[in-house]
Design goal:
The structure holds 3 protein chains of 3 kinds. By secondary structure, chain A is an alpha/beta fold. In chain A, the strands form 4 sheets. In chain A, strands 6-7-8-3-9-10 form a 6-stranded mixed sheet, with helices on both faces. The longest helix of chain A has 18 residues. By secondary structure, chain B is mostly helical. Chain B has a two-stranded antiparallel sheet with strand order 1-2. Chain B is elongated, with a radius of gyration of 24 Å. Chain C folds into 2 domains: about 70 residues, no CATH class; about 220 residues, MetI-like (MetI-like fold, Orthogonal Bundle). Chain C is built from 14 helices and no strands. Chain C is about 80% helix and about 0% strand. The chains are: A alpha/beta, B mainly alpha, C mainly alpha. Chains in contact: A-B, A-C, B-C. The interface between B and C is large, with 43 and 50 residues.
Chain lengths: ~550, ~300, ~325
């Protein structure tokens, strides 16, 4: 049994005083062997990222390790000097981060950013360095290495930038790679490619990988062993197969059960329910601009024709840039469509004048993605919920009663209406936003990536709540998401969008089990851990 | 898709403090605010209580008491022609006027000028900024004009305007305020444009809230803090500019005592009698310093994120 | 890239035009008769009428502007009443001292403030940071002329190291030229240093908090390289921007500094012209300063091409 690449023994890291708990990490122990991928999985605040940063010696000054050791091939990182840490970084241990869009220096060429590592850590001559850089670029499957060397980060896509990051991390062949949520910010298809790349490189170089994630699908896809963290404590660790099929700890069981299954639910929905809203050939085209240097026209959405019926959920699934958000914003007239019709009942609201539109706005309400910016921080929660009804002449007392009833409906304390948004958690804020939308008694509720920013356990609760609301109030729902599992759980019908167009459209069951379009098939093939059922079996 | 992080704790905590009534406590905890605020309050007190602080009418002079050094005793002829004994705490100038009295009364003018300029600049700047942020066609023209005004160095505008109009308190205030308006407009405009993008404003739109209500209910309250901070900076700058105008000879007429005036008249004798310039200079520097510190402290307390914008 | 160039140039022209309009309007929109104001209190009606005809105030305002603009474009800024020469000539005569003073100040300020700002940001919260911030507030608070007099008092009068006032042309001797410029440059740079150091510190602090700095540290790069090649390189744009915008402060300061130190430059000319009610000169100098300011900021904008590859490509 060879020496583990990374060994964490009884590590505790203290938080600055005044936080909600004393320690970010509480007596955690685990190890990573060579040739092994270990996943640290947990929700936000579990301390997984802190451990990763501690292993590299990159903890911010406010966090201190109070006890335990982190051994990199037997050498204690926690006691190492700053100079020694600098020696070790990129030569023996490397780290890649979550946001590829901001992780590279915008004003330095990519080639030079990789070359820097060689220049600082080795004595190689420029030609040798260049050869090594070109070699690693080929290994990460970046086409045209010469062009890549000379390009700047802003000229590359997110996936390409992440590959550059991987190139930087692995050019000197370290024994340990720490990956802190490297695919969370990427599209599903790009994510699949990067995961594949990590697996391949790890196999070729024999690197030990410590992979931080919150996504159990990713865990199922690449991990050999997995450790589950909750509020700084390691609650369970096992080989991936065992843990996923037979979780021991109740927290692990709860987490796995919260992950929606990718198999679509079978819900009997009457096919002849009245159509609440439909779009016909909806399009949003940003015209070519710039009188000297033409910027090409952007077809954000084109020929989008959809139907949403009462009591049913239509899902729009797509990656970033697919146009799904554009469609939602056109329907709510937060942006104005270029052409096409949006029929709410018998009224075409696509280019209706503001005055008339205002009367009809109440029928379509939207819940946004970011719970931390969807409520005015200076208004009490009650004021936010009452804002809508009072705009339409409802008296203050009546609006208050309505608000209290709605808080009840979304499972929040009605007496907390006079509190402020910062006093609530992300999931709770999202419920308040739902209550605010419902206060208008809409016919159509749009959820624009409304659960994407939430932890998986909270997400499960909010999805269940949305289901219940839809049934109770017989609403029509439009659910925008990039997450196939969520779509499978929630939607009756699904429209798959790519580059502004609807490529596939039909009942969820048929689209999921028998995708026709090649893009849809590629999308499903890329979903991590799709071979695992997970929990959250819908009713 | 990225996990959203809760916004920096500072901004939320700022709101929290404000809500709980702990804003005062937070302000009191910031030493820059305390020192700056206290000094300013003291100066305001001095300005109000000027007649009772052992001063005489600042326009009085006595040729027999010319160029006295600080602390010397001499005589001064008051308005009725009576000659009274008087201790010249800060010395006297070339005409025999009491510098101490002139400096104390000068506090009034400086503070009034500072506050008035800040008020005028803010009122006009906010109006223009709101208009530019909300009315698309107006935006282009207005920002071009503001760019044009900002392209002419502020002192030159002030000098030219005061030279053209009769120099009075009102004209000096307007002349100093005009160059400050474009900066406020820019600030408000950029705030309006960025706040309009916030999801809670978009939510308000889809809730049917009218534009005016959005402007006053959602947007303006979130611009209060940067505007207050900017206001203090404008106040400090205005007092300095007024002093410079007076020093150059294009400020208020010399029968109104301002620190700049005193220094302007005293500079010819600077080599022999530096106290003419020294005392008003110290008061000027202290006042402006206090206001600047107050501004810095307010900026750090109300919303640390602002330090990137201002 | 050409798109950027063209856009910046195209944006500059309207600004210059608006400056011209504003300066033109400044005189004509005053309450009362402009000719009377220019003539002053002691003038008799004939002089007033002469001035009025000279300025073309009897024509319609559009025609006036057209004539004035035409003159402007051919370099004719009018004739100075007081100095009895063309304003353009006058400016040409007086430009050298101002240029010398300004260049000295800018070089001195940038060389001092940028490194200080970087160091303060790097060791945030340390003694250098606090000292710098304290100095910066002080620099904004002491008026230029007070500082000038203090320096003259200590250095020239009490210590006798440097001359009190005056200016020596470079052609008359390099060392005397520099000697006379030392105190004025220092006086003028204090406020400029305060501004640039503050912005440098803020910009570098902000870039040090960015993700790519964490990446740079994760590569094991020495701290100096991280701060200079990664942080400062990205902070260049806001720093250079404030150097450009600060020129407005500089111009204001030049006016005062030349008065304090009796330097016969454009700043002194402005004050003398205003006191003498020599309006064509005042107009000419304001136009000149504004145009220079706009041009410098245009150059700053163009420098972004060098500092930020996102604009180039």
């Amino acid at each position: 049994m060879s020496q583990p690449v990374l060994e964490v023994r009884d590590l505790s890291i203290a938080l600055p005083p005044g936080g909600d708990r004393a320690r970010a990490v509480e007596a955690v122990s685990f190890s990573v062997a060579p040739h092994e991928i270990v996943c640290l999985v947990g929700e936000s605040g579990s301390g997984k990222s802190v451990i990763a940063h501690a292993a590299m010696g990159l903890l911010p000054k406010t966090l201190r390790a109070t006890s335990g050791e982190i051994l990199l091939q037997g050498e204690n990182i926690l006691g190492a000097s700053e100079a020694r840490l600098r020696e070790l970084r990129c030569t023996r241990m490397s780290m890649i981060f979550q946001e590829p869009m901001t992780a590279l220096n915008p004003v330095m060429r990519c080639g030079e950013q990789i070359d820097e590592v060689l220049r600082i850590h080795t004595g190689l001559k420029p030609q040798m360095r260049r050869a090594k850089v070109v070699d690693i670029l080929k290994q990460v499957h970046l086409p045209d290495p010469e062009r890549m060397l000379a390009s700047y980060p802003h000229q590359l896509s997110g996936g390409q930038r992440q590959r550059i990051m991987i190139a930087i991390a692995l050019v000197l062949d370290p024994v340990l790679l720490i990956a802190d949520e490297p695919t969370t910010a990427l599209d599903v298809t790009t994510q699949a490619q990067i995961l594949l790349l990590i697996k391949e490189i790890q196999r070729v170089h024999g690197t030990g990988v410590l992979f931080i994630t919150h996504d159990f699908g990713v865990v199922a896809e690449i991990a050999h062993r997995v450790a589950v963290l909750r509020t700084g404590e390691l609650v369970e660790m096992n080989a991936t197969r065992e843990l996923l099929s037979n979780p021991q700890h109740e927290y692990t069981r709860m987490l796995i059960a919260s992950v929606p299954s990718i198999a679509p639910r079978h819900r009997s929905a009457p096919a002849d329910a009245p159509v609440v809203l439909c779009t016909r050939e909806l399009a949003k085209i940003y015209p070519a601009s710039g009188w000297l240097h033409k910027r090409a026209a952007v077809h954000a959405a084109e020929q989008v024709s959809l139907e949403i019926r009462r009591g049913q959920t239509l899902g729009i699934v797509g990656e970033s840039g697919s146009g799904k958000s554009t469609v939602a914003r056109c329907i709510t007239r937060l942006i104005n469509p270029s052409s096409g019709a949006i029929l709410l009942g018998s009224d075409d609201i696509a280019d209706m004048a503001t005055g008339r539109l205002r009367q009809l706005r109440r029928h379509i309400q939207i819940v946004f993605q970011d719970p931390y910016r969807s409520l005015n921080p200076r208004w009490s929660v009650g004021e936010s919920v009452m804002e809508g009804p009072m705009n339409y002449g409802v008296s203050r007392t009546e609006a208050l009663t309505r608000a209290k009833k709605l808080m009840d409906l979304v499972r929040l304390d009605p007496n907390s209406l006079d509190r402020y948004p910062h006093q609530f958690s992300g999931g709770q804020r999202q419920r308040i936003c739902i209550a605010r939308a419902l206060a208008m008694e809409p016919e159509l509720l749009i959820a624009d990536e409304a659960v994407s920013a939430l932890d998986v356990s909270v997400q499960a609760q909010v999805l269940a709540l949305l289901d219940e609301i839809r049934d109770r109030l017989n609403l029509a729902m439009l659910f925008i998401t990039h997450d196939l599992r969520v779509a499978a759980q929630v939607c009756d019908h699904v429209a798959v969008m790519s580059q502004g167009r609807v490529v596939e459209y039909g009942p969820a069951i048929s689209v999921f089990s028998n995708p026709q379009h090649e893009y849809t098939r590629a999308l499903f093939a890329a979903a991590p851990g799709r071979l695992w059922e997970f929990g959250a079996k819908p009713v | 898709m990225p996990h959203m992080q809760p916004p920096e704790i500072s901004a939320e905590a700022a709101v929290a403090a404000h809500i709980k009534g702990g804003l005062w406590r937070k302000l009191r905890g910031n030493w820059a605010v305390m020192i700056g605020g206290t000094v300013l309050a003291l100066l305001a007190l001095i300005a109000v209580a000027a007649p009772w602080l052992g001063t005489v009418d600042p326009t009085l002079f006595d040729p027999a008491s010319r160029d006295l050094l600080p602390g010397a005793s001499g005589e001064i002829t008051d308005l009725d022609g009576e000659t009274i004994a008087h201790k010249f705490l800060m010395g006297s100038d070339g005409f025999g006027r009491d510098i101490y009295s002139r400096v104390i009364y000068g506090t009034r003018v400086s503070l009034i000028v500072g506050a008035a300029v800040a008020l005028v600049a803010l009122v006009f700047g906010v109006s223009c900024g709101l208009a530019a942020g909300y009315i698309r066609w107006l935006d282009g023209i207005m920002m071009r004009i503001m760019d044009g005004v900002m392209a002419i160095p502020g002192i030159l505008i002030a000098i030219a305007l005061v030279a053209l109009w009769r120099a009075s308190l009102a004209t000096v205030i307007i002349a100093i305020a005009i160059p400050e308006i474009p900066r406020v407009t820019r600030l408000v405009r950029s705030l309006v444009l960025s706040i309009r993008e916030e999801p809670y404003v978009e939510a308000a739109v889809s809730l049917g809230t009218r534009t005016l209500k959005i402007m006053f209910g959602h947007i303006l309250p979130n611009t209060m803090a940067p505007l207050i901070v900017q206001g203090t900076y404008i106040c400090a700058s205005a007092i300095l500019v007024e002093a410079i105008l007076s020093f150059l000879g294009v400020g208020l007429p010399t029968d109104i005592p301002t620190w700049g005036n005193i220094m302007a008249e005293g500079r010819v004798q600077f080599n022999d009698f530096p106290h003419n310039v020294f005392f008003p200079g110290v008061f000027l520097a202290l006042t402006v310093l206090a206001i600047n510190m107050l501004g810095d402290g307010l900026r750090d307390t109300l919303d640390p994120r602002m330090s990137k914008r201002i | 890239m050409f798109n950027f160039l063209a856009r910046r140039l195209a944006a500059t022209l309207p600004v210059l035009l608006i400056v011209a309009v504003l300066v033109f309007l400044m005189l004509r929109l005053t309450p009362g008769d402009p000719a009377v104001i220019i003539a002053g209190d002691a003038a008799n009606p004939e002089q007033v009428a002469q001035i009025r005809a000279g300025l073309g105030l009897d024509r319609s305002i559009v025609v006036q502007f057209g004539i004035w603009l035409g003159n402007l474009l051919t370099g004719n800024l009018g004739e100075s009443y007081f100095f009895k020469m063309s304003v353009t000539e006058l400016i040409a005569h007086r430009i050298e001292p101002t240029l010398a003073l300004s260049l000295c100040t800018i070089v001195l300020s940038v060389l001092v403030s940028v490194p200080l700002g970087v160091l303060a940001a790097w060791r945030q919260g340390g003694w250098l940071d606090r000292a710098l911030m304290g100095f910066s507030v002080l620099g904004f608070s002491i008026p230029v002329f007070v500082l000038g007099y203090i320096l003259i008092y200590i250095v020239s009068l009490k210590l006798g190291w440097l001359p009190v006032q005056g200016y020596v042309r470079m052609a008359d001797g390099l060392w005397p030229f520099l000697r006379h410029l030392i105190l004025p440059s220092i006086t003028l740079s204090v406020i400029y240093i305060a501004l640039i150091a503050r912005v440098t510190r803020a910009a570098v602090t902000e870039t040090l908090a960015e993700d790519y700095i964490r990446t740079a540290r994760a590569k094991g790069l020495p701290e100096a390289r991280v701060v200079i090649h990664h942080a400062l390189a990205n902070a260049a744009v806001p720093i250079v921007t404030v150097i450009g915008i600060g020129i407005a402060l500089l111009i204001g300061g030049v006016v005062v500094t030349e008065t304090v130190y009796a330097i016969p430059g454009l700043g002194r000319l402005t004050v003398d012209a205003v006191l003498a009610r020599d309006f064509p000169t005042v107009q000419g100098v304001i136009l000149f300063f504004s145009f220079v300011y706009v041009l410098i900021n245009l150059l700053v904008d163009l420098s972004y091409l060098f500092f930020d590859p996102r604009i180039r490509y």
